[in-house]
Structures are given as structure tokens and as C-alpha cells.
Design goal:
single chain; 213 residues; alpha+beta; Immunoglobulin-like; six-stranded antiparallel sheet
Length: 213
């Protein structure tokens, strides 16, 4: 009888500890305020709320089937559109152009999380040096046969910080280059917005452009 009672106590203790750990872990996730839009094949123009963004293929691509696009020239242009429809005051966001592969796009990516942390930290501290460091790291995500950058003025960078006002619409040009005019395998270019940065955390939103040979 005593052994059965001890066994019951051990099992009960393990259940309580598990519930406590689950509660703590859930709290950490909520504090971080990181949420992700499910990965979906691209459409010609695609919008989601944050505050409202989407991309539009301007030139250099053709549909390749199954949600993929293939390059038809060495240089393509995609326009990322941000609309301040769902904000009540001016807000600052970072826009990132990142590269990965279809096999890895749905995996947990510690390297990408580290980049997002660095960008959010730079925004919170208003630190341009940290932004430059993050930009150099993002550039390394691209292979030699494929490059992408935000083309505004004389700037050519995969990272752009901007402010948007309520009801305002911003169009961010993204140039995608393939020196050979094509790629040897499939890639995914991820458009990421980082915002709502506070001392507790930040929010992110992602969209994907799938590129095939």
C-alpha cells in the first residue's frame, strides 16, 4: 500500500512539474510577440495585415507552375507594397529580404531568429552600426547565383528601415539578380517585416516568393 501511495505521489509530482514548465514556456513565447504568417505559394499580388503589406511582380519573372516563378532575364523587379490602413499613428518597421530553400523554409531557423533579434535591437536602440552588421549577415544568406536587394536612391541593401503614416501607401522596389539569367536549383526569397518593437519584444510578418530553375 505504501509503495502504491509513493508511486502515486511521484506521478502527481511529475504532472505538476510538466504543467509548470509548459506554463513558463508559453509565457516566454507570448512575451516575445513573434508570430508568423503560414508559408503560402505566391500570387501576383498578395496582401496581409501588418499593417498591410504585399508584393507585386513587375518584370523579369514568368509563372512556372505549383506556385513557383522562373526568371526570364538577369534582372527582375518586385514591388513590396505597404499600406497604413490598420494603424492609428506613425510606426517604424524594418523590411528584410532573406534567401533560403524550399526544404528549409518551414524549419525553425536559429540563424534567421538571430538576425531578427539584432534588427529589433538596433531599431529599439536606434543603432545604425547594428543595422549594418545585420545587413551584412543577411547578404550571406544569398548564393552566388542569386542576389536580391532593396533599391532606393543610391542604396542597395537587403535591409531597409522606414516609417509609415496612417492611410499612407509605400512601394519598396526589390531587385532580384541572377548573373546567368537563371538559377540551378529552387530558392525561396522571404520578405520579412519587423515592427512593434518594445523592451518586451517585437512582432514579425513574412511572405515568400518561390523561384525555380
Amino acid at each position: 500500500m505504501d509503495s502504491d501511495y509513493k508511486y502515486f505521489l511521484i506521478i502527481s509530482s511529475l504532472i505538476v512539474i510538466t504543467l509548470i514548465m509548459f506554463t513558463l514556456f508559453s509565457s516566454i513565447v507570448i512575451i516575445g510577440e513573434r508570430y508568423f504568417i503560414p508559408w503560402e505559394p505566391p500570387k501576383k499580388t498578395y496582401y496581409h495585415i501588418f499593417p498591410a503589406g504585399g508584393y507585386k511582380i513587375i518584370s523579369g519573372f514568368k509563372k512556372a507552375g505549383k506556385g513557383y516563378y522562373s526568371l526570364v532575364s538577369k534582372k527582375a523587379l518586385v514591388e513590396f507594397i505597404v499600406r497604413g490602413e490598420y494603424i492609428n499613428e506613425s510606426q517604424t518597421y524594418a523590411f528584410i529580404v532573406y534567401c533560403t530553400t524550399p526544404e528549409k523554409v518551414e524549419d525553425f531557423n536559429p540563424a534567421l531568429f538571430a538576425i531578427l533579434d539584432k534588427v529589433a535591437d538596433a531599431m529599439y536602440k536606434n543603432n545604425s552600426d547594428l543595422l549594418r552588421e545585420a545587413s551584412k549577415i543577411i547578404e550571406k544568406s544569398f548564393p552566388r547565383e542569386l542576389k536580391a536587394y532593396i533599391n532606393i536612391g543610391i542604396s542597395s541593401t537587403p535591409l531597409y528601415v522606414f516609417e509609415i503614416n496612417p492611410k499612407e501607401t509605400l512601394r519598396i522596389p526589390v531587385v532580384i539578380e541572377a548573373p546567368l539569367g537563371k538559377v540551378s536549383k529552387s530558392y525561396v526569397i522571404v520578405f520579412i517585416m519587423v515592427g512593434e518593437v518594445t523592451e518586451e519584444g517585437y512582432s514579425t510578418s513574412e511572405m515568400c516568393l518561390y523561384i525555380s530553375p
